Amino acid sequence: MIENQGWAAGKILLPGFFYRKRGDYMSYRIALASSDGRHIDRHFGHSDGFVIVEVEPGGKFVEQERRQAQAPCQHGFHEEGAMQAAVRALRDCRYVVAEAIGPGAQKALEQQDILPLEIEGTTVADAVQKIYVYEKNKQRASVRA
């Protein structure tokens, strides 16, 4: 694993992300708020755990772990320390996917260079595939620029 310092293998990478070099492609991790490991069915603030997947070249993804986190929202009250702890627990991920992510959580994730995504009514596999297509199109666009 290498920590990005701005340039790697002649490509600009996002600061603060951890990348794993696989050929000419950097794998990345996604945290998904799921109670069963198959469906996106939790709000970020109510999720006490996340499925962590690593996306490899070609779009294949491998579940790395089920990571526990203290849910920062407790019946409408947001505990700032719990929010920061939940975000820190996911700092090795490029994306966090949940049914809903409140503005405070969005801001906290973005401050750690983690892109929060709200995707509801879908499976983990479908969400990962959508993100992979987005990443691939983003890479193509940066090569043309």
From TrEMBL:
<dbReference type="InterPro" id="IPR003731">
    <property type="entry name" value="Di-Nase_FeMo-co_biosynth"/>
</dbReference>
<dbReference type="Pfam" id="PF02579">
    <property type="entry name" value="Nitro_FeMo-Co"/>
</dbReference>
<dbReference type="InterPro" id="IPR036105">
    <property type="entry name" value="DiNase_FeMo-co_biosyn_sf"/>
</dbReference>
<protein>
    <submittedName>
        <fullName>Dinitrogenase iron-molybdenum cofactor biosynthesis protein</fullName>
    </submittedName>
</protein>
<feature type="domain" description="Dinitrogenase iron-molybdenum cofactor biosynthesis">
    <location>
        <begin position="36"/>
        <end position="131"/>
    </location>
</feature>
<dbReference type="InterPro" id="IPR051840">
    <property type="entry name" value="NifX/NifY_domain"/>
</dbReference>
